[in-house]
Amino acid sequence: MIRKFLFLVGLILVSCSSDDTGEVPDGDTPEQTGLTEFQLEFIEEYHYVTFNLSPTSFGGNLNEKWSEEVKIFLDGGADASYQESVENQISTLNDYMTDGTTLEVVNALSEANVHLYLGPAVDIENLWPDMFSFLSQGSFQGYALYSSSSSNINFGRIWVNNDGMPIFTHELGHVLGFGHASDARCGQNSSFMCSSLSNGFSTFDTGMIKTLYHPDITVGKTFQQLRPVIEELLLSESIAL
Ligand SMILES: [Zn+2]
């Protein structure tokens, strides 16, 4: 079995230097598609985030997501209070997973397919030397790596250096298949996938999670293959923004 590892950059404390200002899709106007400008902007951002077009995120060329229950083990300095915060946050996320994929915290590493470690970076030098080697390339609060098989994400590792929910949610977002948001979506009403962390989810964030984890969105597809499916989800208001 070939298992590819996909590397996703965690939080970089310097601002992103992306000069991608977001192109207007060719030939897609409200008149041609029946979609609103807002919905067309959403599709553009969905492409940017889920196909990892940001220069600071790395992932597959084809659509990827989980097709099994996401079971997270909390390691390191994670205590009962941290677990409660995580469970609250994933409860919110579970409401957005429209294909029945669920997330839960499990009490044993052997049951988990996502391993989270909370603690200072030096703690993962021996645990995850590959991840540790990336941490020297910037100033990070967290980092996530995941692997997939045939575009199905099946294993993730998350390191966070603090017990805040913004960094947890951002790194979990990477493991769920989301890259960094475009600069246009970072500022006011920021996306949870901005390198500068945000609290909560923007309208586009909830729409993107509901879309990626919608049963009509299948893995291993190009954006061009998915675009008509996403347009139909919006036109039918299966995905409401
Ligand atoms: Zn990140």
TrEMBL record:
Name under which the protein is recorded: DUF2927 domain-containing protein
GO terms, molecular function: metallopeptidase activity
Pfam families: DUF2927
SUPFAM superfamilies: Metalloproteases ('zincins'), catalytic domain
Signal peptide residue numbers: none
